[in-house]
């Protein structure tokens, strides 16, 4: 049933091998992808409410996010120190325009997989930033010895679903009436996963 599974390993250079890196944008600017640090807290508190207001695709609804600077700093500190997590920022002209990351649960029974999340400001969509961040998340999971990475996506987020499928993610389950949409209706969530080195493929 289950293929041979590498024990998740902690390697001090696993994130440094992948980040930072640069991505040229169509307007000549450069997008820098780098690991997030505690000092990013103010930039993230500016970024998140913008992305929550732009689409119906993320967990928070517009205006709902209310973390304090100290809470955000503490979160980033613990993510940075977590060997079973990666958190990256996409930066253009010194401003955070995107976030992505993955984290495994601490339980031994579940630490062989990590959930991925990402969001980019609309003004920067369609330039390959999302795909590159996903590729880094995927490669981090492989190098960290995970068995799989997975994510949750609402079924009306066609753009993201197409990207995940192109990267090899497949649908695992559909959760009906799972999310409250801005229009008051309820939407479905799809869980998608990419399993590393499957022996049944
Ligand atoms: C989903 C998201 C991260 C994609 O980021 P992006 O930087 O625009 O994506 P990319 O430019 O790297 O494009 C990746 C893929 O998206 C799809 N895509 C790009 N432009 C598209 C368009 N106009 N219409 C439909 N799909 C499109 C394609 O499959 C593309 O693959 P390709 O490069 O082989 O053509 C971004 O739209 C976003 O942040 N959305 C809001 C938050 C969100 O939905 N997060 C995911 C929650 S699960």
What keyword list fits this structure?
single chain, binds coenzyme A, Aminopeptidase, disordered N terminus, alpha+beta, 4 helices, 201 residues
Summarize the structure.
This protein has 201 residues and is α+β, with helices and mostly antiparallel strands. Helix content is 25%, strand content 32%. The chain has a domain at 21-150: Aminopeptidase.
| Average residue pLDDT | 92
Shape: globular
Q: Write down the CATH class of the domain at 21-150.
A: Alpha Beta
Please state the CA-atom Rg, rounded to the nearest Å: 17 Å
Q: Which percent range fits the helix content?
A: 25-40%
CATH architecture of the domain at 21-150: 3-Layer(aba) Sandwich
SS element count, helices: 4
Q: What gap, in angstroms, lies between the N and C termini?
A: 13 Å
- For this structure, the CATH topology of the domain at 21-150 is Aminopeptidase
Number of strands: 8
Strand order of the largest sheet: 1-2-3-4-5-6-8-7
* Ligand identities: coenzyme A
The description of the largest β-sheet is: 8 strands, mixed
Structure description:
The chain is of the alpha+beta class and 201 residues long. The protein has a domain at 21-150: 3-Layer(aba) Sandwich (Aminopeptidase), CATH 3.40.630.30. The protein is built from 4 helices and 8 strands, in the order ββααβββαβαββ. The protein has helices spanning 41-54, 69-81, 129-143, 158-166, and strands spanning 21-24, 30-35, 85-92, 95-104, 113-120, 148-154, 170-180, 186-195. An 8-stranded mixed sheet has the order 1-2-3-4-5-6-8-7, sandwiched between helices. A hairpin with a 2-residue loop joins strand 3 and strand 4 (95-104). Helix 1 crosses helix 2. The chain is globular and about 40 Å long. The site of coenzyme A (COA) has 21 residues, from strand 5, helix 3, strand 6 and helix 4. Coenzyme A binds at residues 55, 57-58, 118-120, 125-131, 151, 153, 157, 159-160, 162-163, 166.
């Amino acid at each position: 049933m289950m293929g041979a599974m590498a024990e998740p390993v902690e390697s001090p250079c696993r994130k440094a091998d992948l980040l930072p890196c640069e991505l040229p944008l169509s307007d000549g600017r450069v997008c820098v992808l780098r690991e997030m640090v505690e000092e990013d807290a103010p930039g993230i508190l500016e970024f998140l409410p913008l992305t929550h207001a732009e689409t119906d695709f993320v967990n928070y609804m517009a205006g709902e996010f209310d973390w304090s600077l100290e809470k955000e700093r503490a979160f980033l500190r613990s993510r940075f120190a977590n060997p079973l997590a990666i958190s990256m920022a996409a930066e253009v002209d010194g401003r955070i325009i995107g976030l992505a990351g993955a984290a495994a649960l601490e339980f031994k029974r579940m630490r062989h997989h990590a959930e991925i999340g990402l969001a980019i400001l609309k003004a920067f969509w369609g330039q390959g930033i999302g795909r590159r961040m996903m590729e880094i998340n995927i490669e981090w999971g492989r190098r960290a010895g995970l068995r799989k990475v997975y994510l949750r996506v609402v079924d009306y987020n066609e753009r993201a679903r197409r990207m995940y499928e192109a990267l090899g993610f497949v649908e695992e389950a559909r959760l009906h009436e799972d999310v409250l949409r801005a229009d008051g209706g309820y939407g479905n969530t799809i869980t998608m996963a990419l399993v590393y080195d499957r022996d049944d493929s």
